[in-house]
Amino acid sequence: MTNETWSADTPGVLRLPSGRLIRGRGLRNPLPPGQKPEFGVYLQGKEPAPVEWESKWVKWTDFWLPADRAAFVETLREVLKRSETERVEIACSGGYGRTGTAMSCLVTLDGIPNSEALAYVRENYNKRAVETPWQKRFIGRFSG
């Protein structure tokens, strides 16, 4: 562990209310230049390709919700903890729907009310974050 998080100006980085930095990205795009993650969470319907850093797979079909919600909450808690000192990324195929949903749930764990989480992520990560009505509803009802 390098004990160094992302630079705030790194593309795709979301600053959480606590100041922690998390990178979101789409896996269909090439790995961005610069620093590599130290821990990644990959939201995919099938197991993703291996990466050279520690990672965790959350089974999550495109446009839907996590298959195991308890494991998803546990993973987000790990993301929050590790992002204090490590470069952590969350990614799905496009970097919008599942990634935006996960980041919205993450900001609720970091102190933003559920009713404001999606707006926070759209303003601070990507305006296209979260793609379906049930993903929006999931954020509204999320509790960690």
TrEMBL record:
Origin superkingdom: Bacteria
Family matches, as InterPro entries: Prot-tyrosine_phosphatase-like, PTP_cat, Tyr_Pase_dom
Pfam families, per the entry: Y_phosphatase
Domain annotation Tyrosine specific protein phosphatases: ranges: 70-123
GO terms of molecular function: protein tyrosine phosphatase activity
Name of the molecule in the record: Protein phosphatase
